[in-house]
Amino acid sequence: MALALPQSSAVTLVKTDDGLERALQAFRSVLTEGQRKDLDAIKDVPDTNAVLTFTAELDAKRRTIKGQSIASRLYSILQCVRDFSSVVETFVSSNPQIAALVWGSMKLTMMEGHSQLYNSLWQSLEKEFAPDMEEIKNRRDHVNRELDLARTQAALRSQQLQLNEQTEASSFRDTMRRVTSQTNNTTKDLSEMIEKQRARERRKLLLSALSSHDHISPHRQNCKKRHGDTLQWFFQLPELHRWMAGDSQILWCSGKIGSGKTILASSVVNYILTEKKTPRELITFFFARFDNQNSLKSETILRSIVRQAIESASMIDDTLPLLETLISLDGLAANTLKRLVTKIAKEVDKLYIIIDGLDECEPVERRDLLNTLASLVALNGGIKLFLSTRDTVANEIRRAFASCEHVSIGRSTVQSDISAYVVSTIDTLLANDDLVVTDPSLIDDIKKALIDNSDGMFLWAAFQLREISSKANDEEIRKSLSRESLPKDLTETFNRALHRVVSSGKGAIVQKLLPWVTAAARPMTLDELQESAMIEICQVSSMPERKVNGIHRLSSWFQGLVDVDEETRSVSFAHVSIRHFFLGEVDPNLKLFSVDLDEADHYLGEICSTYLFFSDFQTALARRERPKPTIQPMDLARRAIADNWKLGHDLFQRSDRRTRSTSSTAVPVGMDVSKTLELYTRGDEDPGFERFQDSHLFLAYASSNCFFHTKAFSESKSRTWPLFHRILQHGHKLVMLPWTSGLGQDLDDLAMIDWVCAVAHAPLIQFISGRSARWRNKKKMLPPHVAEAFELPTVWNIYEDWTFLTDSGRVELAWNISCRGQKDALRILLNSVTGVHKEEVQELSLFVSAVSGHIKIVEILLPQVFNSRIGASYGFAGAALLGDFVITKMFMVAWSRYNGTNDCIEPALLTAIKNGKPELIKLFLDEFVSIAPSSWQKARLVALSYGRDQVVESIDQLEAELGDQLLGV
């Protein structure tokens, strides 16, 4: 606010204080209310610092204004006013407020003047810069409008971007959802595929563990040999239709050798496959082959049948858990296989089982198989069993099956088939120029001669056609067709073929090949024969220049005695009768072609051992330095397990308990089999194995069958014994263990024992007999009816003092051998033990053989047991318990002949009375005088307790009649 000062002042100071007072009042009158309050607030006379304080206050009030300080420039005038106020105070002492008001007026005026000066300066600046400010304002407004527009546009752009982002995000989320869903589905599908693959691998492993036998190839080969118009008569037989559609469960076809039984069996398989009405009718089949030793075992046949049934019934997933459990528990014994077949048979309408060549199996294997099949048929009405065999096993078939449909394949039944075969084959030979004649009428003569003289044997007709085709002219053909010229039987036919071999100049190569074709563990291929046939024992390395040239002509070298399969290139005799011929029926003039099976088998073992140590394979051999003490020949076999497996469990840890000769200076082999085996891994996992196999085609056979062909090896007769000894002692990466299963790579000592006993491998039997072995349930190894009998605790307690439940290798071997009736293995076992251990094996083997029904072994052991005076009470009582009249009588006769003790017969007497079979009890009553009275007293008490009143009466009557004689007993 501006001060309203008068333009002129003509004030005259008459009285000093009055004038000042009036001036101050006039000054107050122009002040505003606020200014007057500020003036009144100044009461004191300024002190020396008042000017400094005032200038500081002025600067403080304009501190927001840029520029230098202005208040300091007023310092001089302000100092004058302050001084004037002091003078006023001096002269106007009566009114001291006047001096204060003078200072206050000056101070207030200065402040107001300062404000006016600032305002005037600022107003002049505003006027100066007003246009610019207006322009700036206008520009500011324009800028603000532009900013507002930009903000609006930015907001719209942002909204559009957000909308686009939301749209893209939504699309991306949809895409991600689809991708995620697809990924999840793909992952799920992949997981399912992996699980299915694992399940397939698991099924494959379990099924392979069940059976890896190729049952298809023999059937396929048989089908190739059948001529289209043959066997029509068989499919019209009422026996066949009763068997397929009626209540008959068994159809047995028998015939002489070479009558076409095997072709008939394959034709039955095809007929059922085409005639079966629903998928619930399953068909399984098996062809036992003379040239495949594994196919002649009852276990192999049963396992193959079970596997086919599981796969055909599409019950793999349902059956495999049970199969896996059973494999882990008992390794699939016969009882377990029957359980599996029974389970499948209950799920289907019909289960066909076709088995050919049962007569080729060993008697023990044949009996086991027939017993199992008979049990299956009795338990399952839906099982249809077809058997084709030679007539030689007729009694065994009839004993096993109470009733069955029977078709005999004789000359009359197959005559039409022989005619069709001869006609068809001659037409083919003529078309291929393999048979050439000048006189067309000679063709009919050939047909008639062969049909009339074949005697129902296709094989005979086939060889005559081959011989006729080799003739040079019609005259020779006519001479060969006369009754005198035609061979009378197959033996003469084969001898003629051998004469043609000699005349063709191929006798030497045929002799080299014969041991391989005759004694091989399986049919060998042409490539394997080409490399192996000319190897010499103890040869150092492979010699390609010795390989047989033109091996593909092998069948012609043998004049048709062997066949070569077109697909597998495997070589085998054209018929089992040809193998039998070479093993014993060769013409004396052709003895060089005769084959001794044992010698041939040993020769193959020598070649396999030689081959595995070729210098070609040195990089694949397992080497380990160790002390080499002098070793007894019997001790060498202990290394048989130290082969090529890494053992995951403890095996055979007990020290050798065999008695040794103290006179021997040889160092015994002190070894831990488990530690030895841990040094080696499987040979077929070595990368070098496949590399060598590509260039050494015999390696696969040699590595897998080395043990099979060395079962009769010994230091005295085997030239390659040092090499075999090296395999036993140090192992060999290229040698595979033949007893291994497909479920793992750990050595299974029980599987090894089964294999060793089955093939009667002498070195390994000698090894096991002196070691401990993993124990297994002995009762499960017995035949089913025997195992059931021994389920009764009161019965088993009779034998609880016997060391059945030990882990002795001798005990395991004795049980295994005796349960299966393997005489050769038992002979080796008895020769490998001495003293008390031999007596233990004899008595145990007698008991197991007696309850298992192996009459031949009982006959062998009874004299040994009674002569050794070690007793036979366990076997005697076991036979009586099972009610086996024949074996019980054998024990009774031996007891009487060898003056057996009363302790031997008493348990059998008491068991027979408990059994209650009259024919058994009569055997003992007939020996009443020979048995001690104390035993009859016990027998009388047992008869009373079991309610055998008739037995009590018989005992009392005999005591009364033979009282005097009893006193002398």
UniProtKB/TrEMBL annotation:
Residues 133-169 form a coiled coil. SUPFAM superfamilies: Ankyrin repeat (SSF48403), P-loop containing nucleoside triphosphate hydrolases (SSF52540). This is NACHT domain-containing protein. The keyword Lipid metabolism does not apply. InterPro entries: Ankyrin_rpt-contain_sf (IPR036770), GPIID_WHD (IPR054471), NACHT_NTPase (IPR007111), NPHP3-like_N (IPR056884), P-loop_NTPase (IPR027417). It comes from Fusarium anthophilum. Residues 249-390 form the NACHT domain. It holds the Pfam family WHD_GPIID. The keyword RNA-binding does not apply. Keywords: Coiled coil, Repeat.
